[in-house]
Amino acid sequence: MDYDVIIAGASIAGCTAATAYGRAGLRVALVERQRSPRAHKTLCGHFVLGGAHDVLCRMGFWEPMRAHGAAVTTGLGVWTPAGWVEPLPDGGVPPAISLRRGTLDPLLREIAGATPGVDLLPGHRVVDLVKDSAGTVVGVVTSTGRAERTVLRARLVVGADGHHSTVARLAGVPEDRAPNHRFLFWTYYEGAAMNGPGDAQVWPLGRDVAVCIPVDGGLTQVGVFPAKDRLPEFTADRAAAFDRFVRRLPDGPSLTGARQVSHLIGTTDYPCVRRDPTPRPGLALIGDAATASDPVPAVGCGWAFRSAAWLADATAGPLANGGNPHHALRAYRRAHRFIDKYDDLGRREALAGPPTALQKAVRTAAVSDPDLARRLAMFAMRAAEPSVLINPGVAVRALVGSRMRRCSRPSASTVGGRAA
Length: 420
Fold this sequence. Notes:
This protein is α+β, with helices and mostly antiparallel strands. The protein has 12 helices and 23 strands. The strands form 5 sheets. Strands 5, 6, 13, 14, 15, 16, 17 and 18 form an 8-stranded mixed sheet that branches. A hairpin with a 2-residue loop joins strand 14 and strand 15. The chain starts with a strand and ends with a strand. The C terminus is likely disordered.
């Protein structure tokens, strides 16, 4: 074999896996179709939830990200009609971090490419897979845009090439697609001031959602996720509709005197796509190639970092010892079930239905119940199993607490152009 591992895609997931494998003493081909070292993903909110904090520290990424100006969020405020769920000091909730992809992707690519054992191959596009007589994937065929083809062989091939994964398509991996009944737009401001509690805020507004997050460069990212029945409003005048939505946020960011430093970024359709992360012998998928979830809870970057680390944790040892990675891939599949559980919940949320009575009760009770607030934060940061919030005990506590609170809701209050 030419390599121990071939990884297609040199963004978050691919660079994380390549770095981990290289540090384990393995020979790695990191194949990237883009030629430019500054290439990066543009449709990405780049907010890395606190659940990925341990991986970022273990991989040695956290401090370089900070050195490149990444903004750290230690507390997320959640607006409710009953008041704000405020972040708890010393609540044990790991911090989130945000670094725009134009800086993050080249940084990770530089780290991976400088790792001994890793061959970074820019400008190489995967055009076919190599299989043995038993159908096991044992390599890839790449093209640099000319007539010649390069055949690379390895004991493990990893697809880290996004939710439109070429590797998955060539392997015939089925897609499980689910609709998303929201669309999304965001922009960046210089000089914006946050009025809610915490370093960042989120507004669950019935069927709509909005967020306000600090990012690198001292900028503030403001994003909206309206239900699709509001598309005509945004189609008529996207900028004006966005501005109206943000201005009507209760305790929303102060933009007076702020300067918008980017165009609106977003899309009107972002379906949820899921594939088996271990679909064929000799093949694994990580990041969006395995699971492209609803973007509202900002899980994508965190899943990319974590799934890549889980795959390397499961398979680096057997590969280094000359073993067959087939059995080790089962351990990766088990670890990936953590993502599957949250993705099941995310797919239901992506239908943009009104909040359930239980969701309302949890948010209302969490305004004055520190333990529920901590559980809500751990759930939002994907720092624990979903059962940290979704279990019978929490449901009973929330329903009782919300009834006891007896907080009246202002009848005239509207948010984002519709009643809360």
